[in-house]
Amino acid sequence: MTPRTALTIAGSDSGGGAGIQADLRTFFANGVHGLVALTAVTVQNSLGVQGFTEIPAEVVCAQIKAVASDMGVDAAKTGMLATAEIIRSVAKTLDELGLDFPLVVDPVAASMTGHALLREDALEAIRTELFPRATLITPNLDEVRLLTGVSVVDPASQRTAADALLEFGSRWVLVKGGHMTGTEDCVDLLSDGREYLELTGPRYLTENTHGGGDTLASAITASLAKGTSVPDAVAAGKKFIERCVAESYSLGAGVGPVSPFWVLDR
Ligand code: PXL
Description:
Elements: E1 5-13, H1 19-29, E2 33-45, E3 48-54, H2 57-70, E4 75-78, H3 84-97, E5 103-105, H4 122-130, E6 136-137, H5 141-148, H6 155-166, E7 172-175, E8 185-191, E9 196-202, H7 212-225, H8 230-246
Parallel strand pairs: 1-2, 1-4, 4-5, 5-6, 6-7
Antiparallel strand pairs: 2-3, 7-8, 8-9
Bound molecules: 3-hydroxy-5-(hydroxymethyl)-2-methylisonicotinaldehyde (PXL).
């Protein structure tokens, strides 16, 4: 039987833990066929990102058009987009395609080790060009602060951040609470401005969380490709990433990846 398709518009991680590598294995683990529009090639290992080269914007868009016109896209996600030009071109291409599928925008700004994955002015382009077209945006707390100026420290400020982010025009926002300190659990807040759904899960004591944000966003995208509602897709994605964090491993001298290997035993 032909599986549903999910498209990732994102960068490559030479260390194999984040970016399109994380997206493709997450799509596979969730039973959807992964399609790729590569935006950038990063040079990195567990110790950090040494640099990146972006793919020409017209090549990024040609990849999207090639797969959409022939194979069809049931859902898409964006990760590392590298430059404002790529972001503007992707937005235009999505419009040309009619954007008749769910779009998850993970506003990736920097790696966990603090290396910029976006050229300057590009975050503003994500906010103005992609958020209004997004079904769901999935910022972590650093990205929330960069995008809104709100520092999330408790449930009240998490709600303030959700409201501020929804002003940029996405249908739903998931304010991920994983980076909040002083809480025993990881509490994420999902909202469309009417519903405010708190998703609570365990916090695992591991340093090896490389690729965690990408894995969550792509697991959600896979569920959306299968026709799941946004709240159910986010709940399923959170369960998936929890297990991947619980089973993360160290590789290299720095930060190791989250792991979907457990699906092989399912
Ligand atoms: O996890 C964010 C991310 C996304 N995409 C690429 C990355 C990273 C983090 O390092 O390298 C290509």
